[in-house]
Write a structure and sequence with these properties.
The chain has 7 helices and 2 strands; from the N terminus they run E-E-H-H-H-H-H-H-H. It has helices at about 45-55, 65-70, 85-90, 95-110, 115-140, 150-165, 175-190; strands spanning about 1-5, 10. Helix 5 packs antiparallel against helix 6 (about 150-165).
């Protein structure tokens, strides 16, 4: 291959071989992403809710707070399709069994605590964190053609791990699989899309 440089001098390349990497006649531009844990804010809010939860003594709350009802209801701006179809449209059916189990486990734990107004506010607070982080950090990356391992790492570092850190005392005993369950709960209710 022949060409000229800026001084009109002849440049010649021959027999170029590459086994791993790039070979270019000009600039190579690659977009890279550094995935690192991005902490959630809201520690004080959660600590205050924990204090309130501890102070509740056998109080029975019979309504669902609006903030939680928003996430429990189907999102009105999208047609209802099941969790399987949503994961299928996002090429994530490999996670279907885990998604169904994690979603069910989270939903049962949330229902177990539904007679506590403060617990409902905690769930609403956490679901809002998951929803916001998914929409701002995960959803934009889905259409960029990244490998599944990248998306999974991004979910762990931007949602799962930071939420575990935020839980602190973790009075509602929410564990990693149930945090994943929050994502799939929101997916099932059409708040989160995978495509």
């Amino acid at each position: 291959m022949e060409g000229e440089n800026q001084n009109n001098e002849l440049i010649r390349q021959e027999g170029n071989e590459i086994t791993n990497g790039d070979l270019a006649g000009r600039d190579v531009n690659k977009q890279t992403y550094q995935i690192g844990r991005i902490p959630f804010s809201g520690q004080n809010t959660l600590l205050n809710l924990y204090e309130k939860l501890k102070a509740e003594e056998n109080e029975v709350f019979t309504e669902i707070v609006d903030e939680l009802m928003h996430f429990k209801n189907h999102a009105s701006n999208t047609p209802f399709i099941g969790l399987e179809a949503k994961l299928e449209s996002g090429n994530r059916t490999v996670y279907l069994q885990f998604a169904e189990v994690a979603k069910e486990k989270f939903t049962k734990k949330m229902m177990k605590n539904e007679h506590s107004e403060t617990a409902q506010y905690i769930y609403a607070f956490l679901l809002a964190k998951v929803y916001s982080r998914f929409q701002t950090s995960i959803y934009p990356r889905l259409s960029e053609g990244h490998p599944d391992t990248f998306i999974t790492s991004l979910i762990l570092e931007t949602i799962i791990n930071p939420l575990e850190d935020l839980l602190g005392e973790n009075l509602l005993r929410l564990y990693e699989d149930e945090i994943h369950g929050m994502i799939y709960f929101l997916t099932g209710n059409c708040h989160i899309k995978w495509n």
